Amino acid sequence: MADIIKEILKDLPNDKISAAGYEGANIVLYTKDQDFFLNNNGLIRQCVDKVKKRIELRPDPSITIDQEEAEKEIRRILTDEAGIDQVIFDPQRSMVVIEAEKPGLAIGKQGALLREIKEKTRWVPTIRRKPAIRSKLIENIRSVLYQNSDWRRKFLDKVGHRVYDGWMREKKHEWVRLTYLGAGRQVGRSCFLLHTPESRVLLDCGMDPSLTPDNPEAYPYLEAPEFKVGELDAVIVSHAHLDHSALIPYLVKFGYSGPIYCTTPTRDVMSLLQLDLIKIMRNEGREPIYTSEEVKNTVRQTITLDYNEVTDITPDMRITFYNSGHILGSAMVHIHIGNGLHNLLYGADMKYGRTALLEPAVSEFPRLETLMIESTYGGRDNILPTRKECEAQIKDIISTTLNRGGKVLIPVLGVGRAQEVMMVIEEMVRTNVIKEIPVIIDGMVWDITAIHTAYPEYLNSSIRKLIFHKDHNPFLHPMFKRIGSQKERMEVIEETGPCVILATSGMLVGGPSVEYFKHLADNPKNTMTFVSYQGEGSMGRRIQRGERDINMGTATKPDMLKVKLEIHTIDGLTGHSGRNQLMSFVHKCNPRPKRVLIVHGESSRCSDLASSIHKQNRIETAAPRNLDTVRLK
């Protein structure tokens, strides 16, 4: 048994603990004593204070009541008003998951109902929100976890041993290095290897979505000599966009069997995007780079964390996720290395401003020496309009187009911009700024919107208030129409009158947005509005730059399309911070970092932002290239 568990058991009565183990960095104790389970007189709290780790006391499976009886008791205790749906038992861990429409009513005042369930059933209850829009994906992900609970218990115990077996070991040589395997002076394929003498941790592993999957430039430099998949201790995923998460199942395919850390919404959305990538590659006649089985195994290996939850991931690394304001569940990753040796904040993609969907990125941290920050819109000329200006622009575009009998096509990323635009339009309709119009939702947008309804606690206070207190879920407005087939798509194009169409992909590099574009492009009554970043080389970027003759065929069989519809770009709706917000974030970061590393931006924007931050703040800055290694300590 590891030293830390021996240390804990020293302070507990000999006959009370029947088993002990790990669930990742959490230490779990089991007891056959019902009274000790319900009231241990603060002994567990004293152990937590002593070792400064999370310790959970659970009933031994042998003292829990029969599952059928327990479910009856749970449904009796919880009122109909809570909207109890599924009750799912995890007998290996003596836990029961209760899905409820209104979790607050299932928890009770100060947790009173949860305590009653524990007393009457001797199961440990967890309340989960039932999504307002049914999501087959969420159900599948949860079933993967429930069906593999025995495997998960062993897996999490193994992770805990990796974290704690070197708990008391003295560290003689200490250093910290960061190798850029992607996103160095480019947007896309974010991937960074953080290494110390003790640990190897990968921050993100994505692809460049503006390039086709058969282009080797689309992938990180996983052949670099520093990187060996078998030596990885942990993978951290900042958020679900494919330029940060696409290659995670690829790592699993090639033997990575360790933990993958992210928030719960990131796990769900990331899985959907990865499955969609497989589907797109198959539709294009390409061999997918991994299968749905590898996506499933990725889910099995995922450990989810809430914002502000601190956890050890290796003997010398501890992480905390903070809201980055970019998309649902997106996180900045704070990494505490060694015993106060160094503190790194991986900012990933961030928005330092409140949006229609999310709260702004956090800028207060416990300690900070190195900040790694994006520069997607970090150039001197990337001064983005305010949210009010953007909303006024959307109103004008929609009103003008609809008045002349046209359709508004908005190519969107499936997660983030789509829901942002939905909320902007819903608010305009609710406040009578514009009249109610059909808003067509196509591609994976609807499934990802369903995931948003499962995690309203990750949304901004205004939307939470509508959902929780006014019982008015803006995502459920009847003007949002889901499209799920080619037949329905053609009906929208040929028969539906003036409307707004939100369709993936956001860069016009495949997906239904390209289908709509083909049919709407030659009519000057229609409008296409870009609201997200257009990658270099993508069709969206070419149209944005003024190309009006687009080849929709191949080089050998050209199919030229004349672009006659109106083109608009609304930069301010992006989930990225503009130049001013990035500078403001660095200035207001508390504590002030000693070094800033610039990533995730075109080369000129990276170097320009690095220069400006140095001049304004008098701190060390750098914009490393791919395959560069930076020594942090």
Description:
- This protein has 633 residues and is α/β, with parallel strands linked by helices.
- It has four domains: 1-61 and 148-170, GMP Synthetase, Chain A, domain 3; 64-130, K homology (KH) domain (GMP Synthetase, Chain A, domain 3, 2-Layer Sandwich); 171-381 and 576-631, 4-Layer Sandwich (Metallo-beta-lactamase, Chain A); 387-573, Rossmann fold.
- It is built from 21 helices and 28 strands.
- A seven-stranded mixed β-sheet has the order 12-11-10-9-8-7-28. A seven-stranded mixed β-sheet has the order 13-14-15-16-17-26-27.
- The longest helix has 20 residues, at 264-283.
- The two termini are 33 Å apart.
- The mean pLDDT is 92.
State the main characteristics.
single chain, 633 residues, alpha/beta, GMP Synthetase, Chain A, domain 3, Metallo-beta-lactamase, Chain A, seven-stranded mixed β-sheet, 21 helices, 28 strands
Unreliable sequence segments: none
Got a strand count? Answer: 28
Mass-distribution shape = globular
Tell me what portion of residues adopts beta-strand conformation. Answer: 15-25%
What's the CATH topology label of the largest domain? Metallo-beta-lactamase, Chain A
Question: Could you say which structural class the secondary elements and strand pairing correspond to?
Answer: alpha/beta
- The CATH class assignment of the largest domain is Alpha Beta
Whole-number count of domains: 4
Largest sheet: 7 strands, mixed
> Mean of the pLDDT scores?
92
Distance between the termini: 33 Å
Estimate percent helicity: 25-40%
> What is the CATH architecture term of the largest domain?
4-Layer Sandwich
| Helix count from the secondary structure assignment | 21
Q: For the largest beta sheet, what order do the strands appear in spatially?
A: 12-11-10-9-8-7-28
Q: Going by CATH, what is the homologous superfamily of the largest domain?
A: Ribonuclease Z/Hydroxyacylglutathione hydrolase-like
Give the radius of gyration: 25 Å
